[in-house]
Amino acid sequence: NLGTISGHTKVCLSVDYRQQRPYAIVTGGEDMTLIQHKGPPFKYNHTCNLHKNFVNCVRYNNDGSLLASAGTDGRILIYDGENVEFKSELLEEGMQRAHDGGVYAVSWSPCGTKLLSASADKTCKIWNTTDNKCETVFNMGSEINDQQLGCLWLKDNMIS
């Protein structure tokens, strides 16, 4: 038995697995929560309620030291990867959130300190999580169909 993943009161939208000891599974959902289970066998460990809307994406960096969550509230939050303690929030200069629209996806760079985000505001951004600053903004258009729903950072390539 590998355990039970539980705790969300609404639909779970995202899941990721910490591949370093202590192993963990983290989920994000429509109930605005991020939930961590440790194991195996996996058992409930911790809940974070910092988002003000759906948690669309949760991702550990490659070495499991950091965890990012992205939400419909336009926020990207960074946590300690082991104990899921809040560390920082990525904020666009002059704004109180990372994006003007909901953030649908995030993907870590191979080095594990930079983050690519994709948003309903029709942009993708590269963030430096060491200083929590946006380094690059990619404007993908102005039409409704230009919303960015997913992203991937693989080696030297970024896809959205």
UniProtKB/TrEMBL annotation:
The keyword Repeat applies. GO terms for cellular component: cortical actin cytoskeleton. The keyword Repeat applies. WD repeats lie at residues 48-80, 96-137. GO terms for molecular function: actin filament binding. Transmembrane segments: none annotated. SMART domains: WD40 (SM00320). PROSITE patterns: WD_REPEATS_2 (PS50082), WD_REPEATS_REGION (PS50294). InterPro entries: WD40/YVTN_repeat-like_dom_sf (IPR015943), WD40_repeat_dom_sf (IPR036322), WD40_rpt (IPR001680). GO terms for biological process: actin filament depolymerization. Keywords: Repeat, WD repeat. It holds the Pfam family WD40. Coiled coil: none annotated. Belongs to the WD repeat AIP1 family. This is WD repeat-containing protein 1-B (Trinotate prediction). It comes from Henneguya salminicola (Myxosporean).
